Fold each of these.
Amino acid sequence: MVTAILLAAGKSLRFIKGRNKVLFKICGKPVIYYSLLALSRHPKIDEIIVVSSLETLSKIKRLIKGYRINKVSKVILGGKERKDSVSSGLKELSLKTSLVVIHDAARPFINSKIITDSILAAKKRGAAVVGVPLKYTVKEHI
């Protein structure tokens, strides 16, 4: 069984003041929706555990229900830091889980190919991490 842990407990400290990144709307839908959709539609993902902050817990539960994301088995509270939220998610795994996919809900561009490639690489090597090439920032000093 493959379980996805979707991390959505961040504080969005570098985002727009007073706004939570995972609930911010892009094309009319919250950022978290795109990750939930990709994970729930993937045939290899059996369940999703969403890790939320206390401030967004009820909103995230409502949007999961509203968008009918059926693979979400639990919405739990995260910890103080990302590592604590990952730990909280791992503690909720079913004994049937043989592989875990962990994704940050603030990154909405996950797709089926990335998920498939990650699962295949993890099965082959025991673990896998997705990365993208570094992009340099160009700044103009005035």
Amino acid sequence: MLGRFLEGFVLGFPAAATPGPFQAFLMAHATSRGWRRALPAAAAPLISDGPVIGILLIIFLQLPPWLLIVIRLAGGLFLLYLAWSAYRLFRFHDFEAIPEDSITNQGVLKAALVNALGPGPWLFWATVGIPTILNAWSISPIHGAVFLFGFYVALIGTFAAFVFMFSATRSLGPRVSRYSSGFAALALFGFAIYQLWQGIQALVLPV
């Protein structure tokens, strides 16, 4: 059980720390409105991820086992791509840049829409999240629930930390954001290797 929680927790942090449209939204919202008004937006994935997971689960339950193995391998490659992207951001991205068209009067529903319309949640759940949930659920529904709990503890916690960081001071924000991207690159690389190894094992030694 602890292993499932840690698996979700470790995946949740790089998912939150890798810069994307939703993170840019949080930065703009926090720097323009302050942490009190921006903090609820950190919980937007709890709203937007539900339909995404539901749709993808319906699709995945119709797939043959061999195709799930292929998708797991594709997920490992996708994580490698994310690790490389996070590394490039760590090295070259200008974290001091703030979007000029800062969103100033949007709430949780707007944040959820931004998150749902971005490619990140769909790619993550399709290639990594759903296969992991199905694997955990095959052992016990509790394992799947614990994985989700660990994932959202890290995801929402990291988004909340970003809100405080972005609203506190711009001088601190870029530095911490860069370190977060560096950690995200390492974490994503580790999980990419783990995901690929799990797929290769399932391919060579089918259950």
